[in-house]
Design brief:
Layout (H helix, E strand, L loop, with lengths): L1 H6 L12 H13 L3 H15 L4 H17 L3 H7 L11 H17 L3 H18 L4 H14 L3 H17 L3 H17 L3 H18 L2 H17 L3 H18 L2 H17 L3 H17 L3 H17 L3 H17 L3 H17 L3 H13 L5 H17 L3 H14 L5 H11 L3 H19 L18 H8 L2 E6 L4 E7 L4 E7 L1 H16 L10 H10 L12 E5 L13 E2 L5 E2 L5 E4 L3 H8 L10 E7 L12 H9 L7 E6 L4 H6 L7 E9 L9 E3 L11 E3 H4 L8 E8 L11 H11 L3 E5 L8 H13 L4 H13 L8 H4 L2 E5 L2
Parallel strand pairs: 1-4, 4-7, 8-9, 8-10, 10-13, 13-14
Antiparallel strand pairs: 1-2, 2-3, 5-6, 10-11, 11-12, 14-15
Helix pairs in contact: 2-3, 2-4, 3-4, 4-5, 4-6, 5-6, 6-7, 6-8, 7-8, 8-9, 8-10, 9-10, 10-11, 10-12, 11-12, 12-13, 12-14, 13-14, 14-15, 14-16, 15-16, 16-17, 16-18, 17-18, 18-19, 18-20, 19-20, 20-21, 20-22, 21-22, 22-23, 25-26, 28-32, 32-33
Length: about 800
């Protein structure tokens, strides 16, 4: 197809036979379809053809050629095309608007942001005054320059207006460009759901018109957005398709980048052979286009992968090649990463002195990034610990913590402390890392978590006494894991299997539950084994009907401990023995627990049964029943109910939620593992802005609450995205941090058949004086001990209590 389009312009004698408009349409179509070299050549010939004969068509082709060159990164050439002033005969302001627009973007991309901004402002002013149909070009130019200026709110406004203008005049290609740039803004703002929405729309438009160059770009950015929210499976699929599309249009540089990203995602999935194949193809392409920067980057990633695969000799060879390239290009960051790898390879050869020299080189280089210095210090600490040089090991572990508060350091230091019988210090250290990681994820005030030393912080036994609970905190490791059990009188440490063994059983057990298997009736082997592994070691410390607060780690966030099967005296769920709640860290639990629930008249804010946005989410058929069941527990003058079109995000913030004792959501939801603030409740669109239908965790956290309970009765993953466990923390902990005393949230897509019954019993229990965790347990037990389908844990175990007091 590209060859046929290019052929339209190859024979010189064929061009006069075409009308200027037909020629313009053909060249633009060639550009849209991704043949950038061919369309540039054709546009250049057209400019020469009309120069001095027809200024209007000459400048139309100049603008088209400028756009093509800018798409290839040739901004100086584009600016040169537009350097001369418009001829006096072109009095139509549309030409001036286009010239200002293209010049503004070219100037900005060449680093002249001030003049670029002035040019696009001229385009905006003139297009507004003349009501020009080229308002869309002015808006996209303003949006692009505003992105470069980091004026993201202004960029969003300009691009949204431009999208409407492009859509109104039927310019699908320009509309897709607007959406693509809107996704860039959203990515800068870390609003990944918004970015994915814009990218999905842009991708659909690009496919519909065969815009292959745009398609590979939107697919690649989609992969990056999925990567950022932790959905590695979709990220991998997007990068794979993006690399294929880049190959089709001959954009070898983009193909290298998407293949490199694909290799990383395959590595994440432990598909090491596929990852190596992707990296080697990317390396071959980078070398073929003589891109020294990309070559060194791919060589570095490939070297680390070979190291991870145990191919140490090949890793060393690739590391040397990459290091030479990085030094030749003065790429210090890549160079220091490779020096660290040299240190690790030296350790594998048993050359301790060379390893220390490599790590010290990184640690002492002033240009080293904090993360690189941290890795070197951590490696030296481990090296000294392995050689029983205890004092030196502790010195370097403390240096590592002082360099950069990163969670990866804490488990290594904790294992060192455990080996030297300092179990309580190890617990406090692990907990510090966990609390800091969550607070950073929620962008809370820096420095609120102190880690001045492993002995600093709260007293686990005192916290257990204050909460009248048994605290179980887990830390998962590659070779072995740990369980600390704190009661008011004692603190014990138990050794558990490595995380892979535990994860394998959790995946199998969760799969059985989500299939609605009757795991109790069949005495599911994984359910019994997980109890024996995770809880049985501490069984003697947990009395009957105790309050147990679980502080999980990693994949344990995806497990509801209540569903674990106790085999004696007869097989039963653990929920029959204890009341289970969840928390993320002792430190944050302690800070939340300082505010006790006040006795006051009960009133309810209920937001739910919204009008879902088209496409991704569907109506919850039984949402009205849940709304009615919950509302009936409160007198009419003690409840505020917002449903359908009234259930929009801004309505939550404007309702003054701090005045309510109970807040309840009935809606879909999304949750992000890696970006907690991207978790959201999916509601109706805000009036006038139907695309703003998510109540984000980042907005929740800044809206004060004092509710005894917030219930997030959301249906996760009903559309195309599903996250669980750690992702739910974004919502639950945002509500807790905003001031809620307890939060109930769902681990998986809940059944809206059983949920109204469960919620009705939850509120009945609280009416009768039970705490939220007691009432939820009683409601679950009613279903679990019933004779119908709802006895299966799929129907009652999705909801968990996240403790705040």
């Amino acid at each position: 197809m590209l060859n046929e389009l290019a052929g339209c312009h190859r024979p010189q004698q064929s061009q006069p036979q075409q009308t200027p408009q037909a020629l313009y349409d053909a060249v633009r179509l060639q550009y849209v379809h991704g043949d950038l070299p061919g369309s540039q050549s054709a546009a250049d010939q057209a400019v020469a053809r009309f120069a001095g004969q027809d200024p209007a068509w000459e400048w139309k082709f100049r603008f088209l050629e400028a756009s093509i060159r800018m798409n290839q990164g040739k901004n100086a050439e584009a600016l040169a095309l537009l350097q001369s002033p418009l001829p006096a005969s072109l009095a139509n302001p549309d030409y001036a608007i286009q010239r200002y627009s293209f010049r503004g973007v070219a100037l900005a991309r060449l680093g002249n942001l001030g003049d670029g901004e002035k040019e696009v402002q001229q385009a905006l002013t003139l297009s507004a005054e003349t009501h020009s149909t080229f308002r869309a070009e002015a808006c996209v130019a303003a949006g692009v320059v505003d992105i470069d200026l980091n004026k993201l709110a202004e960029a969003t406004a300009a691009l949204r207006e431009g999208r409407q203008a492009a859509h109104a005049r039927g310019d699908t290609f320009l509309e897709a460009r607007m959406l693509s740039n809107l996704s860039v803004v959203a990515l800068h703002q870390e609003r990944y759901d918004d970015a994915l929405d814009a990218l999905t729309a842009a991708t659909e438009l690009a496919r519909s018109m065969g815009a292959k160059a745009m398609l590979e770009n939107t697919l690649g950015n989609t992969g990056w957005a999925y990567h950022e929210i932790g959905d590695y499976e979709r990220a991998r699929a997007s990068f794979a398709e993006a690399s294929e599309e880049a190959e089709k249009v001959g954009n070898l540089l983009d193909e290298v980048r998407w293949l490199n990203n694909l290799g990383e995602e395959q590595w994440q999935h432990a598909d090491l052979a596929d990852a190596e194949a992707s990296y080697r193809k990317a390396l071959s392409l980078a070398q073929s286009i003589h891109s020294a920067h990309e070559t060194a980057s791919v060589e570095m990633d490939l070297a680390w992968l070979l190291y991870d695969r145990g191919q140490y000799s090949e890793a060393a060879q690739m590391c040397d090649l990459a290091l030479a390239g990085a030094r030749a290009n003065q790429n210090t960051a890549t160079e220091l990463d490779l020096v660290s790898l040299q240190g690790k390879l030296a350790l594998r050869r048993g050359d301790r002195d060379e390893a220390l020299n490599s790590f010290r080189d990184v640690e002492t280089r002033p240009e080293a990034l904090p993360s690189q210095r941290l890795e070197a210090q951590d490696a030296m600490a481990g090296l000294f610990a392995d050689n029983d040089q205890v004092q030196l090991a502790e010195v370097w572990y403390r240096k590592a913590l002082a360099t950069f508060e990163k969670q990866d350091v804490y488990p290594h230091y904790a294992e060192f402390l455990i080996r030297h019988h300092r179990e309580e210090e190890a617990l406090k250290l692990v907990d510090t890392g966990r609390a800091r990681a969550l607070e950073e994820g929620l962008q809370l005030k820096a420095g609120s978590i102190s880690s001045t030393g492993p002995g600093a912080g709260i007293n686990p036994r005192a916290l257990a006494a204050k909460l009248h609970a048994v605290l179980l905190e887990y830390s998962l490791g590659n070779k072995q894991s740990w369980l600390w059990v704190a009661t008011p009188k004692s603190l014990e440490l138990y050794r558990l299997p490595g995380k892979d063994d535990i994860a394998e059983q959790i995946v199998a057990y969760r799969k059985a539950i989500l299939k609605a298997d009757d795991v109790l009736a069949v005495r599911n082997a994984e359910g019994i084994s997980l109890y024996n592994t995770l809880v049985a070691p501490a069984q003697s410390m947990i009395r009957s009907n105790a309050r147990v607060i679980i502080l999980p780690d990693g994949v344990l966030n995806e497990l509801n401990f209540e569903t674990l099967l106790v085999s004696k005296p007869q097989t039963h769920f653990w929920i029959d023995d204890v009341t289970v709640e969840n928390a993320n860290s002792l430190r944050l639990l302690d800070s939340f627990a300082r505010h006790g629930a006040r006795r006051r008249a009960a009133n309810l804010l209920l937001i739910g049964d919204p009008v879902p946005p088209s496409g991704e989410f569907i109506d919850l058929q039984n949402a009205p029943q849940e709304v009615s069941a919950v509302a009936n527990h409160f007198p009419a003058d003690h409840r505020t109910i917002l449903t359908r079109q009234q259930a929009f995000p801004l309505a939550y913030r404007e309702s003054d939620p701090k005045r309510f004792t109970y807040v309840h959501f009935v809606a879909h939801g999304t949750a992000s593992r890696l970006e907690p603030l991207e978790s959201a409740v999916v509601l109706s669109g805000n009036p006038g802005h139907p695309q703003d239908f998510r109540l984000y965790a980042r907005d929740i956290i800044h809206t004060p609450l004092s509710a005894d309970l917030v219930t997030i009765s959301t249906c996760y993953g009903s559309g195309s995205r599903e996250y669980a466990g750690e992702g739910l923390l974004g919502l639950s902990w945002s509500f807790l941090r905003a001031g809620a005393h307890n939060v109930v949230g769902a681990l998986w897509e809940v059944s809206d058949l059983s949920t109204p019954q469960l919620m009705n019993q939850l509120y009945s229990g609280m009416e009768n004086g039970q705490s939220p965790h007691e009432a939820l347990r009683a409601a679950k037990l009613t279903l679990a001990h019933s004779q119908g389908t709802f006895r299966k844990p799929f129907y009652w175990a999705a909801f968990q209590v996240y403790a705040g007091s």
